[in-house]
Write the structure tokens for this entry.
Amino acid sequence: MSKRPPPSAGPLIPKHRKGIRFLLGVRRDPLRYFRELAANEGAYAWIGLRGQPVLMLNDAAGIEYVLQGNPGNYWKGDVNKVLAPLLADGIFLSEGSQWRRQRQESTPGFTTPRLIEMTEIIVATIAEMLDQWERRGKAGEVIDLCAEMTRLTLDIFLRALFHVQAGEVARDLRDSLGVVLREAEGRIWAPLSLPQKWVLALPKYRNAMRMMHGTVTKLIEERRKSAAQPDDLLSRLIASYGSGAEDQRMLRQQILSFMLSGHETTAHGLTWSLVRLGTAPEVQERLSREALEVLRPGAVAFEQVRGLVNSQNVFNEALRLYPPVWTFSREAYEPDRIPLDDGSFVELPKRGIAMLCTYAVQRREKYWPDPDRFDPDRFLPEQAEGRPRAAWFPFGGGPRFCLGQRFATMESTLTLSMIAKRFEVTLVPNQNIFPEPIITLRPNGKVLVTVRNR
């Protein structure tokens, strides 16, 4: 009779959750696989990924501990290196003193005084889009929400934080980013794969990378040549790096990190919000009444955003059902003992990976009764009372929580309210819209709607 291995030998991973067959099964439908795994196993489940033990952590107390309770023991890990060709030393992937420096130089761009200044820019940019929608709606045109929200969020980001306009670059950025993210997502769950540098040398990847880096280089060059030097995030980033090749490479990666995270995830959150609103006319009506009451004629002030409770709850509920970053991970520097909701613990070995699957946790019935139902009222204070904080974490948590959370929430709340105030949005029938997990959680194709003036 064999002896049970001691704790130092690491977790016992079931054979059916490691190896080639396991990875092939995950690749077929990762969202379904991990959601069912969380439902069947509860607080946590072990899987194997290329020789490393992975703790799929579905427990709110455990998630809060990893992100907030003991963040110094965790780093982004080798899994996230699939994004290195795109983001390399930017704030999303950097660690230690480099990350602290980047966070420090970027934080002033997202303070309350800055958000107050940005409100006018955000409202004006949304209004421009809605004026176009009015003309297109009267002409009977169909509107693609994916394209519109991508263009809008990139335009808001560039105007508010970089003082430049997006123009037609939004579509090309979305397409190029999609090419690279699909490669990265496929590589994570691939049983075998070619070296990434070989794959990225293929024309479609090389062209996508060239487009994104070329866009950033143009922004830097134009700002340096400009007589106007506004005190914005772009100017501060440029001033923070020297003229040497390595500094300039890091500057490009830092700007690209902000550009992509600053519009890509928000665009998806807004698109999913409008998808669900398109099938819930009664919720649209509630948003419309709220917007008419709160957004009075004249300039919209920052303080008014707090009154748009229903709109913010719609956005929060969309992020619950379709978190833009559907899963992320942390790798342990040293062994750790992670506490769980029920007072027990799970042991994570050194170099073990904590997998935090927002999509699965935010659809756990333990935290969210009738979890597939779209119900923005879940976020009302009386319904949220007693729910663990880390049962909802689309912006991460702890020291590395998303720096742009307040900015993204404000622009999304205003966008949904201003749309509902002017239009009734209806999904074009017979569309098969479902989430595509490619690092971010995009709709699988176009999302077509019609708009009608209220």
User: Anything to note?
Assistant: The first helix runs from residue 20 to 28. The chain has a mean pLDDT of 91.
